[in-house]
């Protein structure tokens, strides 16, 4: 029996090394194939070269922030739509709204809760990747 994220390929863009390592470890324990990058530029480049089911995009990163990276990813999409979940320490509704306006599908607020993190991602995957939802 696989984990709750078995078979999913997930890209994590996070500039904080401990947060990146935690996310990757939790995702891999849940059965996902997880790849980590430390900035938005690299996330955009990797998205052009590889196929991922989900992107966990830190909103505030140096050089290229998560909203800019999301816009670039959305602009390059043709017939597919990758699920992009923003990850931010800002819990204010207007901040989440700006993430959604940039093209993110949903937002997860930091700090991540290891006991619910992967299940939360699974729920977004099931709700937002169903036919007719995007």
What features would you highlight for this structure?
41% helix; 5 strands; alpha/beta; single chain; 134 residues; 5-stranded parallel sheet; globular
Summarize this entry quickly.
This protein is 41% helix and 19% strand. The chain has helices at 17-29, 40-49, 66-76, 93-101, 117-128, and strands at residues 9-13, 33-37, 54-58, 83-88, 106-109.
Describe the structure.
The protein has helices spanning 17-29, 40-49, 66-76, 93-101, 117-128; strands spanning 9-13, 33-37, 54-58, 83-88, 106-109. A 5-stranded parallel β-sheet has the order 2-1-3-4-5, sandwiched between helices. The model has no long low-confidence stretch (mean pLDDT 91). It is α/β, with parallel strands linked by helices and 134 residues long. It has a single domain, classed as 3-Layer(aba) Sandwich (Rossmann fold). The radius of gyration is 14 Å and the shape is globular. Strand 1, helix 1 and strand 2 (33-37) form a beta-alpha-beta unit.
